[in-house]
Every structure is written in structure tokens, then in C-alpha cells.
Amino acid sequence: MTYNIALQFEDGVSRIIPCEPNELVADAAYRAKINIPLDCRDGACGTCKCHCESGSFTMGDYIEDALADDEAANGYVLTCQMKPTSDCVVRVPASSAACKTEVGAHGGKLTKIERDSATTVSFSLQAERPLAFLPGQYVNLMVPGSKQTRSYSFSSAPNTSELAFLIRDVPDGLMSTYMRKQAQPEDFMMFTGPYGSFYLRPAVRPILMLAGGTGLAPFLSMLLWLKQNPTDHPIRLAYGVNTNEDLVELETLAELKSHLPNFEFFTCVVDTDSGHPRQGYVTNHLSSDDLRDGNVDVYVCGPPPMVEGVRKWMSGVGVTPKSFHFEKFSSANEAVAA
């Protein structure tokens, strides 16, 4: 059995490499032409010290000067002595350029385009081969007919060749205009990635997901992964939008709920004329109980004001979650205006 080792570099680039059960991670990286900082190869210098965020492994011999006991207890490893016993996520304290690797370049054909509402578009690409990424990550997708790219999170599960995206339809936006007016099945699109530190960590405690608008996309990827890799811990998703027509993928969420008995979700709408049973922001419909006295991992994806609003809400209820992961996004047009 071959394991997938996700190498996370300081500059946000990810490379996922195969590693055999009895192969050292440093050797697997070298075989993939990735030069993790390395010197002695004997567990004596500590040059290849990295942090294993998730996964299991065995360690060979090393001296304490290279890796102290408290570091080992907190997940630090020497890649020259690390052999995986499962898929792993390893943070490398160097940039991808320093490790002489580049982000992967990929391509795929459009297979589906759905204009779900006046404010969203979903589409799928058939990639040339199954793509490994961490659920929640994104790619930079090149807009056909231009040299510009836009960043979008996957809304599909990892390790498949059918890649799905859910994007906001921005007035006069470059990708939005292409998707609304020009895109046709079989169009070829190029993209680079995966990128990002917003991804699902091991499910070792309850999970609270807070999505704003098309910030739902990475959570769909996470939930699809959890469908294939179930957990007994509770998962709650709060999905907030501005208007009723912004609500999309509700059937997908219902289908996921039917397969994940410990998953529940609710929606809310900001528009006070919406008639929706829950109006306002997601934080209006949460309580300190959702933070479980801090024994919870919180994930937030949405516009910057939403992320900051969640921070203020947590501060107001006086509970600090075990971990807090977030992804802020805005359109290129909004960024220019700002």
C-alpha cells in the first residue's frame, strides 16, 4: 500500500507525494525531486525537522540534540527517520522554492456548468488524472482567453479526476463573465495547485463549520471526505447568505446528512424581507453551547467581515475553541476597489 504524504510549505504551496510503507519520507521527497532541507541523514543534525500535523508513522534512531522528547511528543519528526503507517500531512519549515519544487500545473475539460442562481455558478472539470489535495484547499484557475487566474476552493472530494467548484457570480467579473456567457462543455482549462492551509484536520473532537455564501465550497469538500472517512464526533454547519436566492446546494447537504448521522446543518438569510425562519448572521443563531467549553475545532470560510464577526462573537461569549481555522475571500473587483 502506498501512502499519500502532503508536504505543506511556508509559502502556501502543497505537494502530495507517494511514499511506500518502508520508505523514509525524505527519500520519497527526493524521489519526487523535492529537496527537503537535509544534511546528515542519520538523525543527528535536526536539519530535516518538520511537523507532522496528522497521520501515523514510525521513527528510526536519532539523538536528542536533533529531536527533543517534548518536540517528538508534539508531533515533530525527522524526515530522514520517518516512515509513514498512514497518509500524513507534514509541514516543512521552508518555502517550496527553497526545496526546489514548484506547484503542480494541471488541466481539465469542462463537463458541467450550472448557473444555480443569479449569484452563483457551479461547474466541474474532468482532469487528466485523479488529483490529490487536502479537503478545503484551493487552486488558481486560469480564465480562458486571458492570462489571469482566479482562486477557487474545490467543492468535490480529493483523489478523483472529476473536480467541482462553486463560485460567486461577480458582476463584470472576468471568470463570472466567461462562465455566464462563453463557457461550453469540452472547453479546456488550466490550473495550478493545490494551495492553502485551510483544510480539514483530523476529526478528534466536535467540528463547527461556518460558511458565508460560496464559502460553502470547501465545506462540501470536507463533508464529502468525511462521508468516505466517517467520524463519531458531532459536525455542525451554519450556512449564511444575503438573500433566499443565494442558498444553493441544499439537496447536496441533505444527501450528506443522510449518510452522516452525526452531521446537522442550518441556513440563515440576512435579508429581513426573506421570510426565512432564521434571519441575520450565522452568529445570531449560535450560542456558547456550540463552542462546547472550548472542546471544538472551528472552521470559517466567508468574506472578511464574516470572519471578523465570528472572532468578535467568540470573544463575546468568552470561549476559546481548541483550534480556529479560517479562509477569507473577496472578488478581484472588490480587492481593487478596496
From TrEMBL:
Keyword terms, alphabetized: 2Fe-2S, Iron, Iron-sulfur, Metal-binding
Residue span, 2Fe-2S ferredoxin-type domain: 3-96
Family annotation (CDD domains): BenDO_FAD_NAD, fer2
PROSITE patterns (UniProt xref): 2FE2S_FER_1, 2FE2S_FER_2, 4FE4S_FER_2, FAD_FR
4Fe-4S ferredoxin-type domain segment(s): 30-62
Cofactor(s), names only, from the UniProt record: [2Fe-2S] cluster; FAD
Domain FAD-binding FR-type intervals: 103-201
Signal peptide: none
Keyword match Lyase: no
Pfam families cross-referenced by the UniProt entry: FAD_binding_6, Fer2, NAD_binding_1
Classification via NCBIfam families: BenC (NF040810)
Protein name (database record): Benzoate 1,2-dioxygenase electron transfer component BenC
Gene: benC
